[in-house]
């Protein structure tokens, strides 16, 4: 069954993608929740026409995401946490804390679009994460965790 997605679905596709899914997943989950619509011939034609009209807007959004990616890669990010005397963090640094620091710098990024490269940040030091800004644009940011 082919479905046109109305919004991004993790591990399936992005908004306006035509994806092939199993019949039950499409009929019982995607279509009733309004996440997708059945990709009939007429729906595909309307989708193609809409995509032609959106191509210019998408290019502008992609260019803005590229500029933001350059800005993020250059900006230093420092996260202060409480630590023990040996440098171990009480708890760990997560993507939520990175999103909060980015928000303080004036960049709004959804926490679900931030993936920390290391398994868990549990010590003071330098780490990196990948921020997905657009379906084709992602930025690798470096951040420092220091003791408060």
SSE map:
Elements: E1 2-5, E2 18-20, H1 23-30, E3 36-38, H2 41-74, E4 77-81, E5 88-93, H3 95-104, E6 114-116, E7 121-123, E8 125-132, E9 138-147
Parallel strand pairs: 4-9
Antiparallel strand pairs: 1-2, 1-3, 5-7, 6-8, 8-9
Distance between the termini: 54 Å
CATH class of the largest domain: Alpha Beta
Order of helices and strands: EEHEHEEHEEEE
According to DSSP, the number of beta strands is 9
The DSSP helix count reads 3
Q: What is the CATH fold-level name of the largest domain?
A: Ribosomal Protein L9, domain 2
Strand order of the largest sheet: 4-9-8-6
Low-confidence stretches: none
| Apparent shape | elongated
Strand content: 25-35%
Query: In the residues, how many domains can be counted?
Result: 2
What is the averaged pLDDT score?
A: 89
The CATH fourth-level homologous superfamily of the largest domain = Ribosomal protein L9, C-terminal domain
Helix content: 25-40%
Sheet bearing the most strands, described?
A: 4 strands, mixed
Classification by helices and strands: alpha+beta
Rounded to the nearest angstrom, the radius of gyration is 20 Å
Q: Which second-level CATH architecture of the largest domain applies?
A: Roll
